[in-house]
Design a protein that fits this description.
- This protein is α+β, with helices and mostly antiparallel strands.
């Protein structure tokens, strides 16, 4: 059985989202998103093309540091906040 893949995006969905890469496994996607965000601070999110949901998002810009890496939120766990973007879409502009 193949591990599920997840897309890492920069920006804010759906207005400024830009696809960066696809990673196998949610844990690996979280780790990679944090690596990218540490190297280039800004807003990032993990998107599941399988079900069309944003699963996590972070913002590591200085004005958002209190809500960044250590406080990244799992949107899948926050009722009413999970945002549907459409199955398989890679362009949310």
């Amino acid at each position: 059985m193949q591990e599920a893949t997840f897309d890492i995006w920069s920006g804010w969905p759906p207005q400024t989202g830009q696809w960066l890469e696809t990673v196998a496994g949610l844990g690996n996607a979280r780790k990679r998103m944090l690596e990218i965000a540490a190297a280039a601070p800004g807003p990032y999110f993990i998107f599941s093309a399988w079900n069309g949901y944003i699963l996590e998002q972070i913002d590591t810009r200085e004005e958002q540091i209190a809500h960044s890496i250590d406080n990244s939120s799992s949107l899948a766990d926050q009722e009413g906040y999970v945002e549907h973007m459409g199955k398989g879409k890679r362009d949310v502009q």
